[in-house]
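chain below, 193 aa
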Amino acid sequence: MRVLVLHSHPVEESYGKALYKQTLESLREAGHAVDACDLYAENFDPVLSRHDRLAYHDYPGNTALVKPYVERLKQAEALVLVTPIWNFGFPAILKGYFDRVWLPGVSFELVDGKVESRLRHIRKLAAVLTYGATPFRAFVAGNPPKKIVKRVLRAQINPLRPVTLLAHYDMNNCTPESRARFLAKVKTAMERF
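prediction:
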């Protein structure tokens, strides 16, 4: 299976980068063809410009500035996000990726005023998330990233398929042991993906 792995952490020697590397390694060991998309390393421009917004509904012209990313998404059979959660949301670069790449004609189409998915070719979805907050604080805040993965992205891909969601909460108080346990959990989950 061809797996697009989206990563959005800017620091090379970080735990987030270790999770990304483990995800890639485990998926490859499981026999998947992996498309590793490190948004920071690729200098992805997350800004939806005035021009982008004016051309937003004009498919295929709306894809001109992000064509390589659109092609990668169209070729994917599975999608894995590996990202920190900052202020109960995705980093701006990942949010910008969704705004600029998941365009009309690419990820959805409006038919008689109703949204129809164009991502049914993606058969699996997973997310590896790290939070500074505790599970309780995330719950009280409504845990928007979890809802986006388990509801919004899942609905666009296939609402009937299960989603693999792995989250290490309370990174502000984590230990080497808790990080090692979570890394092992990611390894196992990606080997079974």
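The two ends are 10 Å apart (CA to CA). Strands lie at 2-7, 33-38, 78-85, 108-111, 114-117, 124-131, 163-168.
thats it, cya
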